[in-house]
Write a structure and sequence with these properties.
Elements: H1 3-30, H2 45-58, H3 65-80, H4 90-100
């Protein structure tokens, strides 16, 4: 990945997406559109939206060029068979449930 590709395929699109998300949250905060941000019935709608807005400003979703190159190489290694992939079949999931045990609580409707 060249620096040109990194800048124009990752950095700039990520910055625009972040600006758009921050502006949308600011707009929702100003127009009192709190519904998308409230998760629990006991949450204060204004406080939750306010916290989401300030948290979103501090988020940095850009990744270093070296990290992206490593991910691209890893994906290529998986695609070509250089890296072994362990499938997640039903037996794997049963073993995982045995290991986790009672750490996960399920509701009556099957949701965790």
């Amino acid at each position: 990945m060249t620096h040109f590709e990194y800048i124009f395929t990752h950095l700039i699109p990520t910055w625009f997406r972040s600006f758009e998300d921050n502006f949308r949250m600011w707009r929702d905060l100003i127009t009192e559109n709190y519904e998308p941000y409230v998760l629990l019935k006991d949450d204060d709608p204004f406080e939750t939206t306010y916290d989401w807005f300030w948290t979103s400003i501090n988020l940095d979703e850009t990744y270093p060029k070296e990290f992206l190159e490593h991910l691209m190489q890893l994906a290529e290694d998986v695609r070509t068979g250089k890296e072994k992939v362990i499938p997640m079949d039903e037996l794997y999931m049963e073993r995982l449930k045995d290991l986790v045990g009672d750490l996960i609580e399920e509701n009556d409707d099957g949701d965790v």
